[in-house]
Design goal:
The protein is an alpha/beta fold and 533 residues long. It has helices at residues 3-11, 58-80, 121-131, 140-149, 164-173, 180-183, 197-205, 207-210, 216-219, 235-241, 259-266, 321-336, 343-352, 395-420, 440-449, 462-476, 482-490, 503-518, 520-525; strands at 16-21, 25-31, 37-44, 48-50, 53-55, 89-94, 100-102, 160-162, 177-179, 222-224, 252-253, 257-258, 274-279, 283-288, 301-304, 310-316, 365-367, 384-386, 427-432, 453-456, 496-499. The protein has a domain at 268-458 and 502-533: Nucleotidyltransferase, domain 5. The protein has a 7-stranded mixed β-sheet, with helices on both faces. Strands 1, 2, 3, 6, 11 and 12 form a 6-stranded mixed β-sheet that branches. Helix 15 (440-449) links the parallel strand 19 (427-432) and strand 20 (453-456). It is globular and about 65 Å long. Pfam families: FGGY_C, FGGY_N.
């Protein structure tokens, strides 16, 4: 499509905006009616640890929204020489789970508690037993009940509880709606795609809950499925997104979704027996289930696709942060030598060097735990590199240990699905920044999971693009199923590359994983080292 045609689509209000609030970046993407990304903008941010809570400030949430959109507008202006006066539709997605409680006046009662917090084990365990349904530590209901168990003063004032995506959607549309996939990170979902009525009733009967003036169903958002209209961009929302006043209100709003849902969209993994893996600051695998699991597993979340189909999810709090930290050290060293190396060049060189590594990473073992990791019962994060006197400590082995470490906890969780539950998939598609360097990260992941791993040609488009596709689906009227829509409209020309486990690599990964499991007690003991010291 040429520049003049794209400019015409922008001017006539036929383009769609997708915005995703990721762990380290807020990214806005503009797409055409045929799903092609034509402009983007971003805002870098980082969570902070305040009073023992991982959080992002409310001010930064809204500032990041405006600045990422402003950068996108500037990108449009420079490329197509037209302003954005109208958007056909808008979709907001964000990190799933977490805790954002508001009072009747719309005031945030406590700072946003993100998915990264692992303080809710008391509440999550009790609720899992009550519901006979796994409640992970990061779910909204676990955070709420934790606050109740600890008699936090703000609880009695709660009038609305939502997620990050739900909050931003509310600010833009005035509607307290949420997509079913994101809702499934708040509270259990039933077969109808709504908050489970029996679990709602059980929660309301808890003695510690009954002293509050609200009932749980009164403070949760309204749940919608993909394809349903979740509101329209309000006057206030248009001014929030674009303070210049250029953007007009009225755009159709899609149900806000979590990053897991947009990951399923961007990898075309919403059909039964399909699966995907998203890697970044955190990582998760998702498999769309064709039948219920045999039993409740504390390390397996049951969430949903954006249309409400059940999904088994393995969520890992830590993935790329430690790799990024080591890369920064090497970048500083290169600068000392007078070498100016871009981030992409640096990661490419470091990852490609792993092809020279020993298959088991030379006896090294690494823990990339910047925060606690529930799947290995690790309460607090302490990045840790271990080696014995006989370990082969080379750059290649160090980087392979880093990649193995990024995927090791995921493998522990996936073993539950593959070995205990006998779950198989027709395809497992991966996406994320670690796969920008071709083949290397994909092959290491395949070796570690001992599964074939596929990468799609659009894998770098990611969550904001997936959210924009969901917003386009709303415009289409949702006359066909989401799975058919993706197959026949969105991914018609996509190419896919699949790598299978290498014999030597898979054996080396098994040896590494054995060391990783054996030394976990040392990772837990490292918590004696406190930040304030």
């Amino acid at each position: 499509m040429n520049i003049a045609k794209i400019a015409q689509l922008i001017e006539s209000g036929q383009t769609t905006l997708g915005v995703e609030f990721g762990s380290t970046q807020i990214k806005a993407v503009l797409i055409t009616p045929d799903f092609q990304p034509i402009a983007s903008g971003s805002f870098l941010w980082e969570n902070s640890l305040q009073d023992g809570i991982w959080t992002y400030s409310q001010t930064e949430i809204l500032t990041g929204l405006k600045q990422s959109y402003a950068q996108l507008v500037a990108n449009v202006s420079s490329k197509y020489h037209v302003p954005i006066k109208k958007l056909a539709s808008i979709g907001i997605s964000a990190m799933m789970h977490g805790y954002l409680p508001f009072d009747q006046a719309g005031k945030l009662l406590v700072p946003f508690r993100t998915w990264r917090n692992t303080i809710t084990s008391d509440a999550a365990t009790e609720l899992t037993d009550l519901f006979d349904f796994n409640i992970p530590l990061r779910w909204s209901i676990a955070h709420l009940y934790h606050a109740i168990l600890h008699d936090e003063e703000h609880v009695k004032q709660i009038a609305y509880l939502t997620t990050l995506a739900g909050y931003v959607h509310w600010q833009l549309s005035g509607e307290k709606n949420i997509g079913v996939g994101d809702a499934s990170g708040m509270f259990p979902i039933d077969a109808a795609g709504q908050f489970d009525q029996s679990c709602l009733k059980k929660f309301n009967t808890l003695k510690k809950v009954q002293k509050y003036p609200w009932k749980i169903e009164e403070i949760l958002p309204h749940v919608l499925k993909a394809g349903e209209i979740a509101g329209h961009l309000s006057d206030e929302g248009a001014h929030l997104l674009d303070p210049t006043g250029t953007l007009q209100p009225g755009s159709v709003m899609a149900p806000p979704e979590g990053d897991a849902g947009t990951g399923m969209i961007s990898t075309n993994s919403v059909r039964l027996r399909t699966g995907n893996i998203s890697v970044g600051t955190s990582e998760f695998s998702m498999v769309v289930l064709e039948k219920p699991l045999k039993k409740v597993h504390r390390d397996i979340d049951i969430v949903t696709t954006p249309t409400g189909a059940p999904v088994a999810m393995v969520h890992i709090n830590n993935c790329s942060s430690d790799i990024n930290a080591w890369a920064q050290v090497f970048s500083e060293f290169a600068a000392r030598l007078g070498k100016n190396i871009t981030a992409d060049q640096l990661y490419s060189k470091l990852f490609l060097d792993t092809t020279k590594a020993d298959a088991d990473a030379g006896g090294l073992v690494n823990y990339s735990y910047l925060s606690g990791e529930p799947i290995t019962q690790t309460q607090e994060g302490r990045p840790l590199l271990l080696r014995t006197p006989s370990s082969n400590f080379t750059l290649a082995n160090l980087m392979l240990a880093q990649l193995y470490s990024a995927f090791a906890a995921l493998r522990i969780g996936m073993d539950i699905l593959t070995k205990e539950e006998g779950i198989t998939t027709d395809v497992m598609i991966a996406q994320g920044g670690l796969f920008k360097t071709p083949v290397v990260g994909q092959q290491v992941l395949s070796n570690m999971l001992n599964l074939p791993i596929s990468i799609m040609t659009n894998a770098s488009a990611g969550g904001p693009w997936g959210m924009a596709v969901l917003a386009q689906y709303v415009l289409s009227g949702a006359q066909e199923s989401l799975a058919d829509y993706l197959d026949t409209k969105v991914f018609v020309k996509s190419e896919i590359m699949t790598l299978s486990p290498e014999t030597e690599g898979a054996e080396g990964a098994e040896k590494y994983l054995a060391r990783f499991r054996k030394a976990l007690s040392l990772e837990n003991q490292a918590t004696v080292l406190k930040d304030e010291e």
